[in-house]
Design brief:
This protein has about 130 residues and is of the alpha+beta class. Helices cover about 45% and strands about 25% of the residues. The protein has three helices and five strands, in the order αββαβββα. A five-stranded antiparallel β-sheet has the order 2-1-5-4-3, sandwiched between helices. The radius of gyration is 14 Å and the shape is globular. The mean pLDDT is about 90.
Length: about 130
């Protein structure tokens, strides 16, 4: 699947990812297509690896959830030893990943990531 965005959409997406710096403990953000190819990134994150990771998490979670007859995930929060990862599947299948070092501030990170996902959903549906 090849993701194509207009120049206007890409400018808006990149601006929106830069806004992620306002997230508490922000360390990086990436937007990938469902196949794991990076579309845009910002911060201290490796875009290619982050995009592949985000895609893989959704694919593997979808498979695991199918065993209990649940639908595919749309939002995930994942805690590692030193980071909190907020992942959102957008309406067009793109995946937003935001990472934060504030692992105990998950309410704040989740709320922030929901706002960013809403903006990106608008961009991919209207500006594409």
């Amino acid at each position: 699947m090849t993701q194509q965005f207009s120049k206007t959409a890409m400018i808006y997406i990149e601006k929106t990812l830069r806004e992620c710096e306002q997230c508490i403990g922000f360390s990086g953000a990436a937007l990938s297509n469902p196949d794991g190819l990076v579309l845009a990134m910002h911060g201290q994150i490796s875009g290619d690896e982050a995009a592949a990771c985000a895609s893989s998490l959704f694919v593997e979670s979808t498979t695991a959830l199918s065993y209990i007859e649940e639908s595919e995930p749309k939002i995930m929060l994942i805690w590692t030893a030193n980071k909190l990862l907020a992942l959102h599947q957008l309406k067009d299948g793109s995946i937003l990943l935001i990472t934060s070092t504030e692992i105990n501030s998950y309410h704040t990170v989740l709320k922030f990531s929901l706002d960013i996902a809403k903006k990106l959903n608008h961009a991919v549906s209207v500006l594409s």
